[in-house]
Amino acid sequence: MVKYIVVSVIGGILFGVLDGLINANPFAQRLYAVYKPIAKTSINLPAGILIDLGYGFVLAGIFLLLYKSLPGESGLVKGISFALLVWFFRVVMSVASQWIMFNISANALIYTLLAGLGEMFVLGILYGLTLRP
After folding, report:
1. Is it the case that residue 66 has pLDDT exceeding 90?
2. Dist CA 60 CA 10 (whole Å)
3. What is the chain's Cα-based Rg?
4. For the chain, first and last CA: distance in Å?
């Protein structure tokens, strides 16, 4: 249980750091300029931290629940499998919806897909190398 808590907190911190790197860099800011008219001018940092920590706990828990059914023999492969699964449900489906509903450049959508894949790989590998049911 202690390992689950520690890894979940680390996962939550990674979520926040990676989200910041992915979304706040100058390249992403140019790609995501289309959202500027509806974007908030400031971020509620405490709420963001709590949400990211919550994501860390939820994803670590789901990883443990799915562990035996994930493809692969090693924790690393199971972590990568989990990352691909989460990436599909979290990122790919969101990007597909944005593509249908909004006038957003293909570059922004591709960036979101690739950045989200990288983020999910980092988290999946963390969970795969550290957590066992």
Report:
1. yes
2. 10
3. 16
4. 10
Q: Look at the block and give the residue holding tokens 């249980």.
A: 1
| Contact status, residue 101 vs residue 34, Cβ threshold 8 Å | no
Residue recorded with tokens 């990568």: 80
What gap in Å lies between CA 28 and CA 25, rounded to an integer?
A: 5
- Number of Cβ within 10 Å of residue 20's Cβ equals 13
pLDDT tens for each residue of 83-133: 999 999 999 999 999 999 999 999 999 999 999 999 999 999 999 999 998
Q: Which of 89, 75, 76, 78 is nearest to 117 (CA)?
A: 89
What does each C-alpha distance from 118 to 10, 42, 75, 83, 104 come to in angstroms?
17, 26, 18, 9, 21
Distance of alpha carbon 105 from alpha carbon 25, whole angstroms: 17
